Amino acid sequence: MLKPDVPAGPSRAVPRDTARGAPPATTSRSGASIQPLRVVQSSSLAMLVQRELERSILAGELVAGSKLNEATIAAALGVSRGPVREAFRALEESGLVRLEKNRGVFVRQVSVEEADEIYELRAVLDDYAGRRVAERIRAAEVRELRTLLDGMDAAAARNDLDGYHDANLAFHDRLVELAGNRKLLAMYRRLVNELRLHRRASIAQAGALPVSTREHHDIVDKIAAGTPAAAGRALHDHVMGSRERMHRLAPPVATRSTSIPAAAASAARRRR
């Protein structure tokens, strides 16, 4: 387990990046020193560090708001600071950390207000993805989605919240992947990462699992039937249902969709 700002011993999970282990440089015709294997090694290390930090953040081992110390993490993983620095930049792009000038790197905190906005945007993207997938899906891909649903059903039957959460993420990621739009997929994955920082307590609410599994089966049925509008609407409503469950666990917040009508109603009462 990684801990922010706490020194730790070397881990065998990531190979040590040392200058001694680097391959000898070669020289190009222009006289420039080239070390391609070292570049590849460094890039691979940065990816490994990124994955480990991502796992620790999403598992809650590195809690929201905590500061990530470059030197401490490098020592804990047994790498130099370069790959850790690269990993920080990649994690910022994926929405998991924020880099503050002259202050450092922090695990992002997502407020209820920000999560509310993310859900709204996700609902729009999921609507589009559902329509697009329903227009182009093949029989083998429908079977793949149903297999993923089987995994969700099994986790729900065991009341395995962690297993269900992971299966749920895999299902939605594959569905958006089937839409065949790489920009959409990249944006979707960033939003999902940000929502995961807000944790998944809404799934643990009483009665939430049966509702969620029923909605997922309905989504696949509409996609398999080749009804784009119905599939898109089912996905949109599913996401907004998750948003509603989030609000049941949090203090009320003024949202764009509710604050204006509420203010108008209040003003009307005052005029009476």
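That was protein one. Protein two is written in the same sequence-then-structure order:
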Amino acid sequence: MRAAAVVPAAGRGERLGPGAPKALREVGGTPMLVHAVRALAQARSVDLVVVAAPPSELGDVRSLLASFDVPAQVEVVAGGDTRQQSVFRALAALPDDVDVVLVHDAARPLAPSELADSVVTAVRGGADAVVPVLPVVDTVKRVDPDTDVVLETVDRGVLRAVQTPQGFRRTVLARAHAHAGTLDATDDAGLVEALGLQVRVVPGHPEAFKVTRPLDLVLAEAVVSRRRAAGVR
């Protein structure tokens, strides 16, 4: 079962503030997209990485990846107006012999290669869909959005924060996107859930956090500095 990773990277990331598209923001002097693609390409179980980039920037993204010596098994295709469209287009570009597909956010640039391998192993073990998760450590309350009044305190013991890369049998992910319609899921696992199929979980990783706000960039810089001090690229 060959595995490929899809990286939707056509968004702007407005919450991160003005500047380059989120995927091209630098962490430790290296664009987040490069960090993410390099880690996926170095995973033992991943044979190919496909990046869905802004249609007007395909050449620039290809040149960027080449300049940072990202392995050759990386292709760049035109993404869509939404994350969902970008994943769908990248999925259509995969070779026919790919059976397992990872979907990974470029905004999680520091997810280690081992996490991708763990997810692929779970899919190859028989799961239709797999997501890495971490326990929720904060107290969580359900709030009435109209009155800002707390309705209940949710049992965090059964809650998990979901990360990427998420893994799928290719046929399942393709069917989920084909039946998505107007469903606005926040991740691809949500599309699979809408089909009534089970999604399994595996342990996530603390460094696979999402860079959304300027403060997240500070944390990412600290992680990269610690890795480099330890001799990790």
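The first helix runs from residue 32 to 42. Keep this in mind for the problem set.
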